[in-house]
Amino acid sequence: MVSWFLGFLVFGGFIAGIIFWGGFNTALEVTNTEQFCISCHEMEDNVYQELKGTIHYNNRSGVRATCPDCHVPHNWTDKIARKMQASKEVWGKVFGTINTREKFLEKRLELAQHEWDRLKSNNSLECRNCHSAESMDFNRQSPRAQAMHSKFLITAEKTCIYCHKGIAHKLPDMQGVEGWQ
Questions:
Q1: pLDDT score recorded for residue 56
Q2: Distance CA 83, CA 28 (A)
Q3: b or e along 160-178 (b: 16 or more beta carbons within 10 Å of the residue's beta carbon)?
Q4: How is domain 13-163 classified at the CATH fold level?
């Protein structure tokens, strides 16, 4: 009788674990779509509209970056950590700290700096998921881009986000930001 109970407990725990893991991963993937990201008007009306006017949205090759491509790491553990950080953004939605265009613009520099810091700390990992130094044709770049990419990609002194702020979204008001020209 005890062995049946233990067997049932182990089997039930195994099945419950599969259901929990499947549900968790399903929820993780649902929240990792552009449709989910722009489901709140703050994102759809602000940064998504800006993205639509960039090369990352519409280009000659037809390859398009979505919100999670740039803002959510692909590696599972990094993805979980990013989702936990993003809960603070949900807090802003729930408590109305960015629920109007004016409030969003007031917080925009702070939000952007958090994202830039994240990309600096992970060596612009999300950029590098699509762009690689090995695939770049320096001869097709402007002389300035050739010089900068040759220097920084080889030395790893700087990462993509140091120079490419505002590549997919408008820059916030940068007056008073140290090191900004």
A1: 92
A2: 9
A3: bbeeebeebbeebeeeeee
A4: Multiheme cytochrome fold (1.10.3820)
